[in-house]
Amino acid sequence: MIRTIDINKFGQFEDFNWIKELNRGPRFEKINILYGRNYSGKTTLSRIFRSIEKKEVHPNYAREAKFKISFDDGSSIDEKEVALKSTAHIRVYNSDFIKENLSWLYNPDGSIQPFTILGDTNVAIEEKINEIVDRLGSIEGKKGLLFEQNQILEDFKNKTEGKNGKQHELDQALSEKARNIKHNPGLYDSVNYTHPKISADINAAKSQGVLSNVELENKKKLLKEDTKENIGRIQEPQTKLSEYIIKTKELLSAKIKPTKPINELLEDSLLQEWVRQGIDKHKSIRKSCAFCGNVISQDLWKKLDDHFSTESENLRTDIENTIKRLNAGKKNLENFISIPREKFYNIYFDDVEIAIAKWQNAKQNYLSCIDDLINVLEDKKNDIFNVKTIEIRDSYSEPLIQAIKQINYLIDQNNLKGTTLAKEQRQARLELRLSEVAKFLKEIGYEKRVVELTTAEAAIKVVEKKLSDINGFIQQLNNQKKLFEAQLKDESRGAELVNKYLQRFFGHDEIKLKATDNDAKIKFQVTRDGSDVQNLSEGECSLISFCYFIARIEDDLKDDAIKEKLVVYIDDPISSLDNNHIFFMFSLIDSVLAKPKKYGQLFISTHNMDFFKYIKRLTSFEGKDSVAFFLIERKQKQNHKRSFIKNMPEHLKEYVTEFNYLFKEIYTVYEEVKGDKKKKFDNTFNNFYNLPNNMRKFLECYLFYKYPNNNNPLSNLDKLFDDNIPSLVNRVVNEYSHLTYIDRAWHPIDVNEAEECAKIIIEAIKRSDPNQYSALCESIGVATN
User: Fold this and answer.
1) Is residue 71 a contact partner of residue 2, using CB atoms and an 8 Å limit?
2) How far apart are the C-alpha atoms of 281 and 270, rounded to whole Å?
3) What is the pTM for the complete model shown?
């Protein structure tokens, strides 16, 4: 049951707090009667209740609406939760209900929405429906297919959330890694590397695997390379070492003898060489020895010539020429290669170093061999008459040539690298990126995660199949249930029930609703004496509308499961009805709703005092204490006019006529108050604006009861004032209370005038009829002396 309502903002309600405004006083009870004048906020309040019924906030207030309705079980619902299921089953009758369902009453192009109610009981069909309902069960009852469906759905949600959580963690890790790779574009060429791209790389990364440290270093070196100029190939040398060896051996083995040898020289090669060199420095140059000063005789020259023959000199010359060739070959070989390592790409640095080392070693061996040949030839030259031997063969030319070939191969590879560098660098970046991804996959246990996700997905599919099966079965049962329910429903009975209420409670036989079939679609039409009606009076519209509403909720009223929590809100059902119709409107509410106890909670609001007089008779089946009375007022607060729900004054609760209420309104202006009376009137602007009309109505009632011999009670006004009607009273009664002059609507009565007029009327009654005055004061809770 609804107990309180707080309205922070909804139309003309603003900052309304139940506890603050009603001083922790009454709460909404089983029956709630609300009185308020037109435009006080009654319909606005009903729209909050209808927002819950329609499960959406009224479109006029959707942007600013802020309210909270509290229930007796401690739960509540606010503007954000109206779309959710509420424990209250609310049905609201107000102008919005009429416009939505009976637009024809106000617009010829509108319509009257048909509705169905349960027809005559069909036991067999109802048993089938009950059987289906029992099989469906409920979540709350923890049994049946709906409960089983909910259990499977919860399992599906849990498994899906678990799987999604794992997937989210993996996606987050992949996204983070993608960002890290993206921020190193120089190494990975991945400016736009994202989660989808790293996902696309996973299979290739797994296939390639993680690169070794050496591979990583080589690829990083490759990325640092710039394109270099081509290196010229080295012409392979034509080695003559074999030729030199043969020639040397030939010279060493040459055997010659002097014509007349000098034994001393033959036995001492150094002395022999010293003498030979002396001949070169003396013959044809000096006549005496440069060493001892003695004259060199012709006989000595003859002996020396016989020892150093032409043949030996020719051999010496041949040896010297061979030594020169060997030295020249040696010099050429030493300067044969000069290639800076920097001309090669970094990737070949190590290979170039090895190749050059091999070259240097082969060259050194080759040069050493030449040195050996030179040395042995020098020995032969110095000891030319003795045969010399040497054990040597050409094992150095081939390593030298192979070293040159290896260097040329590296030169060719290096030059080729210049044409493929950009492509190889792209490939290197790709392989580096895939290696980084493969390393990352190992770090996060990717394979294990994939297995877990695959297992979770398989489990979800199993539950999903169960859910699909049970959903299909439930849908099938619901379709059967709808077919059976359709057999129980009869739309024509909706119109018949409206007509029953019109005839029973209002005596209208001529005005009826008729259900017509148009293109296989049922619609309701209004007829008078069997003919379609085009124009209805306002009173007739109100009668049809309210009977339609009561008939529309017929099924709710019959349903024992619903009626315990059924909240019916009836907003101002009275328009321009005569007193007889007002009573029958009350009778309809009392007979159909109140007495049969077919509701959980009832709200009725009205502006009509006569209707209010009747509905005060409604008594809840829980006793008089379960009926609450409230007043809806629009008054000024903090320079802003707002609507408020207030406790209803006792005189309105206790007395059954409007007479007491009107006297209270006039007496309020008359009585002395503390503070600024003008400010008080400003805060009750609605009541103050209606004061002239209230004065006129009060005087009509008072004079009619006192002088019931005239159809115009105000014609006896002079009797109240001893044949001298004060001009101010006459002005208020005849001018302020009517809009004969349109400008009066824009100029409400002045405070001083109101106060003076109220004083004149109250004092006149007090003077002319003191007993009546005392009784009226007592009825509104004012003590008299």
Assistant:
1) yes
2) 17
3) 0.48
Q: What pLDDT digit, counting tens, does each position of 516-561 carry?
A: 765 545 667 778 777 777 677 777 788 888 888 888 888 788 877 7
Rounded CA-CA distance 729/713 in Å is 15
Q: Which of residues 280 and 435 earns the better pLDDT score?
A: 435
The closest alpha carbon to 28, from 52, 4, 53, belongs to 4
Residues 294, 146: Cα–Cα separation, whole Å: 147
Q: Please give the C-alpha separations between residue 298 and each of 282, 284, 288, 302, in angstroms, as whole numbers.
A: 13, 12, 11, 6
DSSP 8-state symbol, 523: E
**Is 2-116+536-648 assigned to CATH 1.10.10?**
no
- CA 569 to CA 593: how far, in whole Å? 11
SS3 for 602?
strand
Q: Can you name the residues that pair with 527 across neighbouring β-strands?
A: 512, 532
Q: Please list, in sequence order, all residues whose beta carbon lies within 8 angstroms of the beta carbon of residue 310, skipping any fewer than 6 positions away.
A: none
> Which of 419-428, 500-509, 681-690 is the least confident region?
681-690
Token code pair at residue 293? 């000063």
Domain ranges of the chain: 2-116+536-648, 241-420, 658-779
pLDDT per residue over 274-294, tens digit each?
776 776 667 667 767 777 767
Structure tokens at 614: 């009747």
pLDDT category of residue 120 using cuts at 50, 70 and 90: very low
Which amino acid would we find at residue 773? Y
Burial code (b: 16+ CB inside 10 Å, e: under 16) for 350-366 equals ebbeebbebbeebbeeb
Q: Which residues of 2-11 are buried (b: 16+ CB within 10 A; e: fewer)?
A: bbbbbbbbbb
C-alpha distances (whole Å) from 712 to each of 7, 432, 466, 701, 769 are: 45, 108, 81, 11, 21
For residue 4, give the 3-state DSSP assignment. Answer: strand
Nearest to 411 by CA among 336, 356, 362, 365: 356
- On whether the CB atoms of residues 401 and 239 are closer than 8 A, the answer is yes
Of 182-186, 330-334, 436-440, 464-468, the one with minimum mean pLDDT is 182-186
Element (H, E) at 350: helix 349-382
Task: Count CB-CB contacts under 10 A for residue 69.
Answer: 25
Contact 602, 125 (CB under 8 A): no
For residue 141, how many other CB atoms are within 10 A of its CB? 9
